[in-house]
Amino acid sequence: MDGIKMEKWRTSFEKGVSGLKASYESLLLPKTFEETFTLQADETKHTFYLELDPELPAEVQDSLEKLLIETEPEDSI
Description:
The protein is of the alpha+beta class. It is 48% helix and 16% strand. The protein is built from two helices and two strands, in the order αββα. A two-stranded antiparallel ribbon has the order 1-2.
């Protein structure tokens, strides 16, 4: 995946994350939403992956992982 698609993917993911933030904040957990995950780039595979806080509720983890998959642009031939 080229740099343009990677940037598009990051932008789409970040837009989707803003929608999840409100549901996370309603849980009234001690950490801010931004402290519970990081989006990391795998330069060898040209893809992204998430590093998640182990204390992050499972439903939020699932939502973040699903969002990452759904926002990945198609790799055209």
